[in-house]
Design a protein that fits this description.
8 helices; 3-stranded antiparallel β-sheet; alpha+beta; about 20% strand; about 25% helix; 7-stranded mixed β-sheet
């Protein structure tokens, strides 16, 4: 069992083929070192003030820093990266008219951090979604080297096809080793986890996740990126944040402060 590595000029079709087969892949060196360095400088002050996790799953030696749409211009550019967004839309629009941003999170695993239990991220919605519906696509952008020693994300290729009761053997677990600027893609249905950091260096990655437009998101973007901030972004990003109607009757509003008549409005109006 192996993890597929694709070049940065790969096609959407090639990525989809591998996601269908394995549920996970790495695209190597998709952005350059300067982009990663700028991203790290933008989010460093927020990471510095982020506490360690308070339970075993979050990681007692792991920092998880969110709200990054509002905080980082590079993060915003990665969210709307043409190749990644095209892959996400092609994968998820089988089940939805629009996709939205599910989560932004910088994950920093410090030396001594223990491996997470293997899990599927679709568990955020409990067991209510039919197994045949894939609800999300996850990306983890490497901000440092990802190695076996420093806790590169673990995954079990092909496990998105398994029954929920099937357990992975040690031999089936692969680590997503990659260099800064590379990105690990995996579906919400594949088993994965953060690895143990047995090195003397921090392992840092940026987790950006997309989901079906009719699902509730893990990170509440209306609070993490309210209208007074979101109005400054381009329409593509605003739509991903949820400032659009997912369907004709999904996501409209009435202004409680200025509208006396109860007029139904598109959420785009709040950004004008």
């Amino acid at each position: 069992m192996n993890l597929t590595y694709l070049p940065k000029d790969t096609s959407v079709q090639e990525a989809l083929k591998n996601l269908a087969e394995d549920g996970a892949l790495v695209i190597e060196d998709l952005v350059d070192a300067q982009t990663i360095d700028l991203l790290k400088s933008e989010i460093a002050p927020y990471i510095e003030n982020t506490p360690m996790g308070q339970d075993k799953f979050s990681g007692h030696r792991t920092q998880r820093t969110g709200g990054l749409v509002s905080r980082s211009s590079v993060c915003r550019s990665l969210i709307t990266h043409d190749l990644i967004l095209s892959i996400a839309e092609a994968l998820l629009k089988q089940y939805t008219k629009k996709i939205i941003l599910h989560l932004t999170q910088a994950i920093t695993i410090h030396p001594g951090g223990q491996a997470q239990v293997l899990h599927r991220d679709r568990g955020a919605w409990g067991d209510y979604l039919p197994a045949e519906i894939e609800p999300q696509l996850n990306t983890i952008w490497a901000l440092t080297d990802f190695t076996e020693e420093n806790g590169a994300t673990r995954c079990v290729p092909g496990s998105h096809k398994w029954d929920s009761s099937q357990r992975a053997t040690t031999e089936q677990i692969i680590q997503s080793e990659m260099s800064p600027g590379s990105v690990f893609l995996y579906t919400g249905s594949v088993l994965h986890s953060g690895g143990a950091n047995r090195s003397n260096q921090k392992r840092a990655g940026l987790n950006l996740t997309y989901c079906l437009g009719w699902l509730r998101t893990e990170e509440n973007q209306y609070l993490s990126c309210p209208p007074d901030i979101a109005k400054n972004f381009d329409r593509k990003l605003q739509d991903l944040l949820g400032y659009t109607q997912g369907e004709y009757a999904l996501g409209y509003y009435t202004d409680p402060y200025t509208d006396q008549g109860g007029t139904i409005r598109s959420p785009k109006r709040v950004l004008e």
